Structure formats: structure tokens, C-alpha cells
């Protein structure tokens, strides 16, 4: 069986389980379950701390895992990203009291507090910045107030908690993170079970991004309509019973669907419908 590590809690857990369910895999019914077997799909899921998943995968005990890009890099594990999943997006940045620092060069000789010392130490080393790094587990905003550090490095979403602590971000982002599928570095790339798993997840990503659009239009407006809905290869066009009319079906980006419907209506298309896509293979 394919052995897969899944986050057992936190912001990664729920969306990962939802995506796996949409991809046709069984998921645990209770949060206390640490392992389930999906015999129909020949997959075994292990529910682990997100921070530990890269370590387990790098050991070869598990074939692949879902974790955050930031956690993968911070772990220093011998594992690599093979598919971004588009959820749990975040930005990792430096922050300090206003006027303390403007860029990386201002960190020289300072102490940086963070829960992600692996990421910070690598970033500082890559930029030849000589600074100290202190590891803290959570609530790093208080490190500056208590004199533990002059700078912090943390995940920033809205920046509200930093502003409430009297801090501001500075410099370029250290990295951008999201949920990713990982495997052990150098693992076999053409494993059929892994490829099937990735195809299923890619199908979910496409299904979430596109909708199916159907509409009727006159033949003389077909070229304009097709230009608006080119589909992935080309749209499906079928003649209608009423002469001079055709039915068109094409996949369109979900975020552009309403605008496309307006444009189609303006050129004379009618009976314009959109339907959700629940699964696909491209």
C-alpha cells in the first residue's frame, strides 16, 4: 500500500482532509485516529504533527506526505516538494519596532527570535548576514518587549497581531509558503501509485479552478463565442434542432465565469449555464 502522512491538526489538517476526500480517498471520522487504511484505493494514511511529516517521509518509512513548504524547509529533512496544493498560503517576514531596521543589512549583529530557526538561519547564511537566532515556540511577538531579541521572523497574514504588539514588517519576504506534497529526495519518480495519487489531487485542483459552461448561440456568432470560451483544447459544438443554432460546451476559469456569461449574452448567446466540476483528469 501507498503510505501517506497527513497533518493531524492545525490549519493544514482540515483542508488536506477535504482535498483527499474530494479525490476519492477515505478519511478518518474521529480526530483521535492516528492511522486508517483505505483498502479500495490501496492507501494507508498516518495522521502526524505537521512539523514531523518531513522527517518521517525523509526516513523512507512513509512514501509521501502533505505539509507546509515552510515546515519542509525548516526541518532540514532530506525531502522535496513535488506538488503545490494552493491552500494554507502564508508569507514569512521579519518584523521589528518602527525605525529599528529597513532591510537585511540592518540585521547584522542583532538577535532574531523565531519558531522557524531553520528557515531563518538558511536565509541569513544565503545573504551573508551575521546575526544570532533564538528559537521560541509561538508568540514570538513578545520577544522584543521582553528583551530576548531585537527582531522577530514569523508567518504574517494580515499583520494585525504585529501592529498590536507595536511592530512592523520590513524588507522583502523571506519566503511564501503553502501546503505541498513531499517525497524523500531521490525517491523513484515514476512509481505508479504515487503518480495516480498526484493525478487525483491535480484533478481536484482543476475542478476547483474551473466550471463547465454550456450555452446556445447562432452560427454566425460562433467564432466570437469560441474566442470567449476556448476551453482547454477546444469547445464541444453540437447542432441544435433549430437551424442556424448550435450548443457549445467548454471549461472556463471559475473566477471569470460571470464576466464571460455577460460577454456571451452581449453577442447573442442564450441559455447560458455553469455547473461545478467535481473531478477530472486532464
UniProtKB/TrEMBL annotation:
Family: Belongs to the ATP phosphoribosyltransferase family. Long subfamily.
Keyword annotations from UniProtKB, A to Z: Amino-acid biosynthesis, ATP-binding, Cytoplasm, Glycosyltransferase, Histidine biosynthesis, Magnesium, Metal-binding, Nucleotide-binding, Transferase
InterPro entries membership: ATP-PRT_HisG_long (IPR020621), ATP_PRibTrfase_cat (IPR013820), ATP_PRibTrfase_HisG (IPR001348), HisG_C (IPR013115), N-reg_PII-like_a/b (IPR011322), N-reg_PII/ATP_PRibTrfase_C (IPR015867)
Organism: Streptomyces fuscus
EC number, as in UniProt: 2.4.2.17
Top EC class for this record: transferase
Catalytic activity: 1-(5-phospho-beta-D-ribosyl)-ATP + diphosphate = 5-phospho-alpha-D-ribose 1-diphosphate + ATP
PANTHER family listed in its UniProt record: ATP PHOSPHORIBOSYLTRANSFERASE, ATP PHOSPHORIBOSYLTRANSFERASE ATP-PRTASE
Domain Histidine biosynthesis HisG C-terminal span(s) in chain numbering: 207-278
Described function: Catalyzes the condensation of ATP and 5-phosphoribose 1-diphosphate to form N'-(5'-phosphoribosyl)-ATP (PR-ATP). Has a crucial role in the pathway because the rate of histidine biosynthesis seems to be controlled primarily by regulation of HisG enzymatic activity.
Name this polypeptide is given: ATP phosphoribosyltransferase
Domain ATP phosphoribosyltransferase catalytic: 49-203
Modes of activity regulation: Feedback inhibited by histidine.
Coiled-coil stretches: none
Pathway(s): Amino-acid biosynthesis; L-histidine biosynthesis; L-histidine from 5-phospho-alpha-D-ribose 1-diphosphate: step 1/9
Cofactor(s) it depends on: Mg(2+)
Compartment(s): Cytoplasm
Superkingdom field: Bacteria
Gene Ontology terms for molecular function: ATP phosphoribosyltransferase activity
Amino acid at each position: 500500500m501507498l503510505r501517506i502522512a497527513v497533518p493531524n491538526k492545525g490549519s493544514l489538517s482540515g483542508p488536506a482532509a477535504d482535498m483527499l476526500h474530494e479525490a476519492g480517498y477515505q478519511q478518518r471520522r474521529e480526530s483521535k485516529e492516528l492511522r486508517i487504511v483505505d483498502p479500495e484505493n490501496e492507501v494507508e494514511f498516518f495522521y502526524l504533527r505537521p512539523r514531523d511529516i518531513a522527517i518521517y517521509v525523509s526516513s523512507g518509512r512513509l512514501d509521501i506526505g502533505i505539509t507546509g513548504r515552510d515546515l519542509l524547509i525548516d526541518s532540514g529533512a532530506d525531502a522535496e516538494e513535488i506538488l503545490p496544493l494552493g491552500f494554507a498560503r502564508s508569507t514569512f517576514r521579519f518584523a521589528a519596532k518602527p525605525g529599528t531596521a529597513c532591510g537585511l543589512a540592518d540585521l547584522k549583529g542583532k538577535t532574531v527570535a523565531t519558531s522557524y530557526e531553520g528557515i531563518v538561519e538558511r536565509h541569513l547564511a544565503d545573504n551573508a548576514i551575521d546575526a544570532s537566532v533564538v528559537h521560541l515556540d509561538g508568540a514570538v511577538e513578545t520577544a522584543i518587549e521582553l528583551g530576548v531579541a531585537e527582531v522577530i521572523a514569523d508567518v504574517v497574514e494580515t499583520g494585525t497581531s504585529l501592529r498590536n504588539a507595536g511592530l512592523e514588517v520590513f524588507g522583502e519576504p523571506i519566503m511564501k509558503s503553502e501546503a505541498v506534497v513531499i517525497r524523500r529526495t531521490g525517491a523513484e519518480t515514476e512509481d505508479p501509485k504515487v503518480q495516480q495519487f498526484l493525478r487525483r489531487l491535480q484533478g481536484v485542483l482543476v475542478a476547483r479552478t474551473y466550471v463547465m459552461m454550456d450555452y446556445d448561440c447562432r452560427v454566425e456568432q460562433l467564432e466570437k463565442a469560441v474566442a470567449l470560451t476556448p476551453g482547454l483544447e477546444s469547445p464541444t459544438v453540437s447542432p441544435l434542432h433549430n437551424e442556424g443554432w448550435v450548443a457549445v460546451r467548454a471549461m472556463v476559469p471559475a473566477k471569470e465565469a460571470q464576466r464571460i456569461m455577460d460577454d456571451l449574452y452581449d453577442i447573442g448567446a442564450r441559455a447560458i449555464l455553469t455547473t461545478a466540476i467535481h473531478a477530472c483528469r486532464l
